[in-house]
Write the structure tokens for this entry.
Amino acid sequence: MTPDNFSISNKMFSGKSPDSGMRVQIIGVGGAGANVVDCLSLEMNSYGNISFGVINTDRSALENSPINDTCLIGRNVTRGLGTGGEMELGFKAADQDRENLRNMLANPDIVFIVTGLGGGTGTGAAPVVAEVASSTDALVISYATLPFTFEGGRKKTLADEGLALLRKSSDAVIPLPNDILLQGDDGDSSVLKAFAQGKDWVRTGIEAILSLVHKTGLCNIDYSTLRNAFVERGGKTLFGVGMGSGQNASSNALESLMLCPLLRTPENSLKADNLIVNITGGPSLGMTDVNEIMTFLRGKLGGDNTVFGAVIDENCGDSIEIFILGTTNLNHSRTLPTESQSGTSPTNDIFPASSKKNSKARSKSDRGQEEVLSNTQKEFDFLGNIDEGRGYFDQTDKNLFNGEDLDIPTYLRRGIKISLK
Amino acid sequence: MSRNKIIGAVEIGTSKVVVLVAELTSDQSVNLIGYAKKTSAGIKKGEIIDFSSASKVTHAAIAEAEKNAGVNIDSIYLSLTGGHLEGTFNRGSAHVSSHDGRVAEQDLTRAIEDAKSKRLPDKRLYVNHIRNPYLLDQRVVESPVGMQGDNLEVGFWTVHGDESTIGNYLHIVNGFGLDVDDLIISSICSGEAVVFPAMKDSGALVIDIGRGTTDYALYRNGYIIKTGVVCVGGDHFTNDLSMGLRISPREAEDLKKKEGTLIEDDMSPKAKVWLRGDFSIGDREILSDSIYQILKARSTELFNTIKSDLGELFNPSDIAGGIVLTGGGSLLRGIPENSAEIFEMQSELGYLPNWVDESLRTPENSTALGLLLYAARHNYSSPDTASNRGLLSLIRGIFNSQKTG
């Protein structure tokens, strides 16, 4: 990042002051989402201006929630008994209660929706909740866990459908595949751990975004800048956290960021059109560190439109935490950053990653219809294929066998934990 | 005497395009006179995703092989793979029509036509009909003509593929100004190369692990009873490593070749290897066990996929010849052991017959060499009556090409 860019970002620091009373809502939708938000409400109560809410079709689950602000949806549809995994019911429930949802989402600035896709309520209702939240002009960021492969093909199909819908109605969706959560950093890889890990990712993600606009630091950004970083809806997101400490804190943090399991695609497919970076460090965090980190990230990830903040937190000591959130624009053929250190891989030269190739690969399908279909088809492909963790095979047709996509690494689908150290 | 026929065997694979040029002489021998190998472009999982790149590479390879051989190719044989291929078993039957109850040539023809008459869905094309033995009144007979009986039956393992996908391959070769004489699915080719007649008779399963696909063919009593393509190959092993270890595809490919293994190292579970080993910035240590875990998961799944694809046809007692592994992917350390573990039967790397020049005798070449053998047989006898036996004796080990690529 050049000094020029710094001055631009600094100029932007003019809007709301940290205590402007920005309203933040964290809403859990469905069983899985509510569980996470229940935990978060207990862990994050030190933040003054966050309100928590849970939305469910299951009355008894809501009654057990420690959160006061609850919303039972679809009384007429499910009689308060849950959806039994029917996405259609989840949708109807939320659709009927749009008025209640609107009351619940009263004028927030940022709404974080937390949900688990693959079931009924989360999959069906969360897109509606996101839609209602968007209609209040809030920034809507959704965190969605995706089912384990071993839960079977039906859940996966549902989750894919829900994810596509959620993408359209949220400013950014961060998918948290349970398969990947198993790949977390510590030795134990039980399913419970995976869920706890999922909750921690959500928390880290929310805190990092809030600290961008809340905490004071070297460079802050304001709400409207953050708002503008989300240019287009429906695209793929990139989400990662890295931490490092000691003498080479910034390079350690970068290294740990690059190993973040959520940035699981190989380097050359990491990319973002719009990139939000938050760097948190102790008092020793200097502009050189920030510069080093930003230069590295822009080289690696692209990001024509980068928003970043650097925050000083006395509690950090000599450690640095980097958080990145990127979004990609749809229908935008993009050139990747060219500075790759070890020579470009042969695949890069041959397939310059673009949707054009995709349509060529499809030319085997009916040529007559292709013209007509091309637009919808493109969008469908994009929504269907992204964030699957297929790496080299991202642009190719799915490789289905017994409902599983064989292009996705086997170890991920089988929940085999790979240690990196 | 007419000029000897010059044929080209072309494999347009995910990793490379191989062209073999051979001369078929009037005394029924095959002289391998030209060879070219080029790194592929525009192919993933055995299917063309970029027509012009794939076309360019193929044309360059054919031109080089022709130059190498010093003659022009008369016709091309092309191997074919990809997820679009599907197979079914079709039966046909005919009543023996002659008054003396002896099978005549036209009874055979009618039975065969009956078996082949199954209509395909739109936009599908037949690629290969692989004949299985004749049954005369439920008895297996090799050549029924002249034998006494009432009902003649014949079965075909029939492979069909997507019309436009196949069209693309043909267009590539036509674009060079050559015609494709025949298309043969890759698994049959590999079987021709590495499964010897005696093994086919006792039953064998050949598995060719390529870069983009894995092709298999199951032999029983000398006949192919099933073939299949699993769209998983060496690229998947590499991609898994790349994603699992968060390294670039190129690093993953190198690491797979250098350190990849399917054999667990019990002695030193914490052993590490350097990613690049050149002391460059960004080089880091990687747990050998992680490499093993990732590759083992993939390989185990691949073999299990084939096993479940074969279903009831997989019966170890019918496959006394064992499993023969070939293709570039079979070079990964521990592949035969893993196969033996999953299929619970003897598994070995296939070896190419020794009339093939040593420089060509690598598992990557088995498809192209098998294709050439198939083409030679096709030219010397009508395909339907060709026996699986004795072909090797037709071939003389005369090989005089410059090695390139």
About this structure: Chain B has a mean pLDDT of 87. The first strand of chain B starts at residue 5 and ends at 12.
